C-alpha cells in the first residue's frame, strides 16, 4: 500500500516560501530558480489536492489550508533534521548512551561526576535529555533514566538509586538566620517551589518545629529549583532545597544552613533501564558506576554546622 508522503524537497520549498512570505525570497534562500520553487509548490499542491499558496498581484500568501499545513509540517521538518544530526553525531567506533534525567539532578549531581564515568568508558558518548516529570510517555526514547521513584515508564526495569535529603538554606548574612537556627520560623519568608507546596510543612513536622507560620504554603513561589536558589542568594527568604543541589554553595560559603536539621525529601530517585538495553555493556557499566557514586556520597555526608 503506497504511503502518502510528499518529497522532502517539496516540503523544504514550501517551508521556505511560508517563512519568507514569497517565492522570490525563498528561491534566494534555497539557491534555486524562481521557476524551480514554483514547480515544487505545484507538485505538492497536486499531491495534496489542496491549494496551499495564493498568488496575486501583491505577492504570494498562504491560504488557510496552507497555514494549517505549514504549522504541522514545520515541526516535523525540524524533528527530522534533529534525528538526522543525532545519527550523524554517533561515533562509529563507540557507543552512545542516551540518558533521560530530572534537570536539577543532572546539573547538580550527575554532571559534576560524569568525567569519572567517561574516563572508565572512553568509547562511550553520553547524551543527556530532560525526562519530563509528571508527563506520561508510552515509550520514552532513553536507554536509561534517572527519575523520581514514582515516574512512569511502562516496561522499564526499575530499581531505587538514591534518596533525597532536603535542607533549609539562606544567604550568609540573612536577617532571618538567627531566628531560624533557633527553630523560630514564624516571621521567616518561606520560599516555595511550585511543585512542592507541602514541602515546608513536611519538613517542619520531621524536624519537630512548631514555631512556624500558620500557613506554611504562603510565600514567594517559583517554578524551578534554580529560581529558588537565586531567590535565596538574593536574601528574599529561606529556601528548602535538596542537599545535593546546594552542596557547592554550602562548601564555598555562598549559602549557609538556616537550620541544622536535614529531612527526607518527598521522593527518592530510581534508575530506569529500557528493557531492550538491559544487557548492554555500556548500560550495565553506567548502572554500576552510579551505585559507586551513591555509595561514595553516603560515606562523605557532611555534618551540619553554622
Question: Can you describe this structure?
Answer:
- The chain has 306 residues and is of the alpha/beta class.
- Helices cover 42% and strands 21% of the residues.
- It contains 11 helices and 12 strands.
- The strands form 3 sheets. It has a 5-stranded mixed beta sheet with strand order 4-3-5-12-6.
- Strand 1 and strand 2 form a beta hairpin.
- Helix 1 crosses helix 3 and helix 5 crosses helix 10.
- The longest helix has 25 residues, at 64-88.
- It is elongated, with a radius of gyration of 27 Å.
- The model has no long low-confidence stretch (mean pLDDT 90).
Can you give me a brief rundown of this structure?
The protein has 306 residues and is an alpha/beta fold.
Terminus-to-terminus distance:
72 Å
Shape, principal axes of CA atoms = elongated
The order of strands across the largest sheet is 4-3-5-12-6
H/E element order: HHHEEHEHHEEEEHEHEHEHEEH
Mean pLDDT equals 90
Which radius of gyration do the C-alpha atoms yield? 27 Å
- Low-confidence residue ranges: none
Query: Please, how many helices?
Result: 11
